[in-house]
Amino acid sequence: MSDADKVTYDASGLVTVVAQDAGTGEVLMVAHMTREALERTLATGQGWYWSRSRRQLWRKGETSGHTQRVVEVRGDCDGDAILLKVEQTGAACHTGHRSCFYRSVAPDGRLVNPGGAETPAAPGPAGPEILTELAAVLAERRRAPAAGSYTAGLFAQGLARLNEKVMEEAAEVTRAARKETPARLVEETADLWFHSLALLVYQGISPSEVFAELARRRR
């Protein structure tokens, strides 16, 4: 018996799946799987689902490029729901938002966007989840270098150059804090974070491991 056979499916042969960012814990989306979709997910390490509207299997990101690398698969106590912990590249929601849960429920029951507006909010990550997305992009650049890419060139120069860049950017951050404007400090910190992520990716380390260490220290 495979692990997919141990799940309890409903009368339509489906099980509810919650996809969660492995690094930040943000809930990204809710979807459904058939036994075959779960088997493919377990076999490939990519998120596979069942489209109830199109009546077919689909792999997350197969057309948009917004893929899900599965870090962990969990089942609930009754075996009738699944939690996927994933590293999400790009937006999880078809609207272009990082998460499908970008709206709030107002006291009168209306769904409203951040700030209370009913018009669509601007898509894209604006919180710590951007680090996970950026790391996924960096990993893809290392796997498939593109001609003229700064990141690909950085990886090609190896560990010594990455170490140099992190030290250079750290010095730029402290200089900005001492002598420059808050805006420059933000820009230099972004450079430091970018190159630190590149170093982690080069060493095969996910930012989720750093998040977990920070959470451990906070506890």
Q: Would you give an account of this structure?
A:
With 219 residues, the protein is an alpha+beta fold. It has 2 domains: 3-112, Phosphoribosyl-AMP cyclohydrolase (Ubiquitin-like (UB roll), Roll), CATH 3.10.20; 129-218, Orthogonal Bundle (Helix Hairpins). It has 6 helices and 8 strands. The chain has a 4-stranded mixed β-sheet. It has a two-stranded antiparallel sheet with strand order 3-4. A two-stranded antiparallel sheet has the order 7-8. A hairpin with a 4-residue loop joins strand 3 (48-51) and strand 4. Helix 4 (159-179) runs antiparallel to helix 5. The longest helix is centred in the C-terminal third of the chain and has 21 residues, at 159-179. It is globular, with a radius of gyration of 20 Å. The model has no long low-confidence stretch (mean pLDDT 86).
Brief characterization of the structure:
By secondary structure, the protein is an alpha+beta fold.
Approximate helicity band: 25-40%
Quaternary organization: single chain
Shape from CA axes? Answer: globular
Topology order in helix (H) and strand (E) letters: EEHEEEEEEHHHHH
The main sheet orders its strands as: 2-1-6-5
- The CATH architecture of the largest domain can be named as Roll
Instruction: Give the distance, in angstroms, between the N- and C-terminal Cα atoms.
Output: 39 Å
Mean pLDDT: 86
Beta strand count: 8
CATH topology of the largest domain: Ubiquitin-like (UB roll)
Full CATH superfamily name of the largest domain: Phosphoribosyl-AMP cyclohydrolase
How many structural domains?
2
Radius of gyration: 20 Å
How many individual helices?
Answer: 6
Contiguous runs where pLDDT drops below 50 for at least 5 residues? none
Structural class: alpha+beta
Major pleated sheet: 4 strands, mixed
CATH class of the largest domain, named Alpha Beta
